[in-house]
Amino acid sequence: MTTERSDVRRWIAEAIGTFFLVLIGPGAAMVDAFSRGAIGHAGVSLSFAFVVIAMIYATGHLSGAHLNPAVTLGFWSARRFPAREVAPYIAAQCIGAVAASLALRAAIGNVGGMGATLPAVSVGAAFAVEWLLSFALMFVIMAVATDERVASGFAAIAVGLTVGFCAMMGGPLTGASMNPARSLGPAIVGGAWRAHWIYWAAPITAAMVGARTYEFLRGVRAPSGEMLGVEGAVS
User: Fold this and answer.
1) Among candidate residues 90, 134, 98, the one with its CA nearest the CA of residue 23
2) Residue 229, helix vs strand vs coil
3) Which of 56, 117, 161, 182 could join 156 via S-S bond, C-beta 3.0 to 4.6 A?
C-alpha cells in the first residue's frame, strides 16, 4: 500500500511542531544557563507553555499536534488513534527533537547540559514525579480532545498551561519532561543518558493510564481506529 500525501504532510507537521517545542523549551533552559540566569526557572516554564500553545494552534488541524510519543501512544491505547500511524508519528517527533537539539548546539554550543532532563532526586522519586505529571497532561488532553462538553477553542491554552504548571513544579526535580522525544534530542546531542529510561517508561505508561481513566470517567466507548489530536479529530 502506497503512502498517501496527506500522511506525509501529517508526519512533517509533527516533526516541525516537535522541533520548535524542543528549540524553545530546552533552548530557553540553555539560554538561561548561557546568560547566567537571565530567564529564570519561571521563564523557562513559561517558554514551554507558550511554545506548546503556539504549536497546537499551528499544527493541530494538520496532524493533531501530539508532539509527544507518550500522547500518541496514549491516544492509541484508548482506541483513539490508528496503530498504523503510531510508528511514523513517533519517528517524526524524535527526528524533530534531535534536529532542534543539533540546531541549538550549532548556535550556542553545549551549554546548560543541552537542556537535558536528568533527575535531581532518587530514581524512584523521579519516576513518580514524571508519571504523575504525565498522567495530568494526558488527562487534560483527553478532556479537551474527546469530550464535547468541554468548551471548544481552548484546547491549546489548556494543554499549554498544563505543560507550564507541570514544568514549574517538576522542572527542578526531573526536568518535567513528560515527553520522550523532548528528552531524547538533548540526550543524543549532549550525551546525557543518566536514568534516561525514566523519560520513556514514566510518560508512556502514565499517558496510557491517563487516557483510559478519562475514557472510563466519560462513559462513552471510543470508535475503533479514530484519528485524534489535541484539538479533536484529524481529517
Assistant:
1) 98
2) strand
3) 56
* Count of all residues that appear for the chain in the document: 235
Angle among Cα 33, 37, 43 to the nearest 5 degrees reads 100
CB–CB of 141/228 below 8 Å? no
d(CA 28, CA 26): 5
Query: How do residues 103-156 score in pLDDT, each as one tens digit?
Result: 999 999 999 999 999 999 999 999 999 999 999 999 999 999 988 888 888 999
Residue 230 DSSP symbol: T
Which domain, by its residues, includes 107? 5-233
Report in angstroms the alpha-carbon separations of 57 from 22, 61, 207, 215, 216. Answer: 17, 8, 22, 24, 28
- Give the closest residue to 155 by CA, choosing from 104, 63, 229: 229
193: helix, strand or coil: coil
Total number of domains constituting the chain: 1
| pTM for the full predicted model | 0.93
* CATH for 200: 1.20.1080.10
Helix (H) or strand (E) holding 118: none
On whether the CB atoms of residues 93 and 99 are closer than 8 A, the answer is no
Strands (DSSP E) found in the chain: 228-229, 232-233
Phi, psi of 232, deg, nearest 5: 120, -155
> Maximum Cα–Cα distance for the chain, whole Å?
53
Q: What is the DSSP string of 24-67?
A: HHHHHHHHHHHTTSSSHHHHHHHHHHHHHHHHHHHHHHHH----
Q: Are 155 and 232 in contact (CB under 8 A)?
A: yes
pLDDT tens figures, 200-217? 999 999 999 999 999 999
